[in-house]
Amino acid sequence: MSRTANVTKLDYYEVLGVERTANDQELKTAYRKLALQYHPDRNPGNPEAEEQFKACSEAYQVLSDPQKRAAYDRFGHAGVNGGGPAAGGFDGSPFGGFEDLGDIFGDLFGFNVGGRGSRGGNSRVQKGRDVRCDLTLAFEEAVFGKETHVTIHRREACGDCNGTGAAAGRGPVTCGQCQGRGQVRYQQGFFSIARTCSACGGSGQVISDPCPTCRGDGRVDKQRNIAVHVPAGVEDGTRIRYQGEGDVGRFGGPAGDLYVVLSVQPHKFFERDGNDLHCAIPISFPQASLGTELTLPSLDGEVRLKIPEGTQSGKEFRVRGKGVPHLNEHGRGDLIVQIVVQTPTKLSKVQKELMRQLSDSLTVENTPTSRSSLFEKVKEIFS
């Protein structure tokens, strides 16, 4: 009974070829690789390359912006108003998100062209990686929400060196190769090229005596219990993001995020379609013919359902407000009950005689009909 929506745009993460947990640096690396590959200047007269370039630029414009990415993760393309060039801010310039060719070369190969100055600053600073945790929920817990805890393993600042990576009392020292500037500058013809210092990684400092606890990394592994709020109405595969709860960044860099990925167990007879719940219930031929009143289970108590006389197999009845709560909104979906009239397979002699008497008293037009008409009737019943 599930219904699939038409997909008109590719997933932004698939366009860039990255995981949904990719950090900023992974997004930037993937984007710039694709931008160099598909840029129109490198593919003159190739409309497919131009479309690929626009697609990856659009994807990066959204995913590199924390607010737009959060909206896209939650609502898809609708959360960023289609995410097109007008919405995403792609300006159509030769290199989209890059300022010029030297900007690309500088980031990819570690040098700046044309005297643009240092781009890295303290490039030794690194953002922490995101952490993923899987949480399995019962069907009812996904419908009504849950407060729980998850246990995660993440990297936190080393207490012995306060995250510096250097032994206690020592600290980093000025890099002798770049004299603390983080870059080594070369003159080549008309260009002044500044290359990231290979000795200090661009930080301008090196650790001569590393901390024995973290071995110079500045971080250690820790186990933590994190409180998780599961809102009512979540679906299987929903990701809940907790900003700053991932690995701590190195050398003062920002922490990554925690993503709690939900897995919802199936119900024994309810099937979910959006915010509606579906189930089928068998009734006998006399109940369908004469009508009856049924007591049905729901996720929050029993409900009464009146079946009118003459109900046909496949007929659906809607019980308002007994479905799944709308996520972060008011209201609930409905419970949709499909009637299935069962034909008895074993009858006693008395029952058979009664059925014969009933059959003789009933008038049924056994008139042939076209297969297409019959198919349409069956399709009406089960659609």
TrEMBL record:
Highest taxon of source: Bacteria
What HAMAP family does the entry give?
Answer: DnaJ
For the ligand (Zn(2+) 2), the binding residues are: C175, C178, C197, C200
Which segments carry the CXXCXGXG motif repeats? 158-165, 175-182, 197-204, 211-218
The family assignment reads: Belongs to the DnaJ family.
Annotated residues for binding of Zn(2+) 1: C158, C161, C211, C214
Record keywords, A-Z? Chaperone, Cytoplasm, DNA replication, Metal-binding, Repeat, Stress response, Zinc, Zinc-finger
In its UniProt record, which GO terms are filed under biological process?
Answer: DNA replication; protein refolding; response to heat
Its annotated compartments are: Cytoplasm
Keyword tRNA processing applies:
no
What's the name of the protein? Chaperone protein DnaJ
Q: Start and end residues of each CR-type zinc finger?
A: 145-223
Q: State what this protein does.
A: Participates actively in the response to hyperosmotic and heat shock by preventing the aggregation of stress-denatured proteins and by disaggregating proteins, also in an autonomous, DnaK-independent fashion. Unfolded proteins bind initially to DnaJ; upon interaction with the DnaJ-bound protein, DnaK hydrolyzes its bound ATP, resulting in the formation of a stable complex. GrpE releases ADP from DnaK; ATP binding to DnaK triggers the release of the substrate protein, thus completing the reaction cycle.
